[in-house]
Amino acid sequence: MTYSEFKKYLSEVCHVPIEDITDDVSFRNDLGIDSLQMVNVIVGLRDKTEISLTNITDSESFATPKKLYQTIIGG
Question: Which of 2, 13, 19, 43 has the most C-beta neighbours closer than 10 Å?
Answer without folding.
Answer: 13
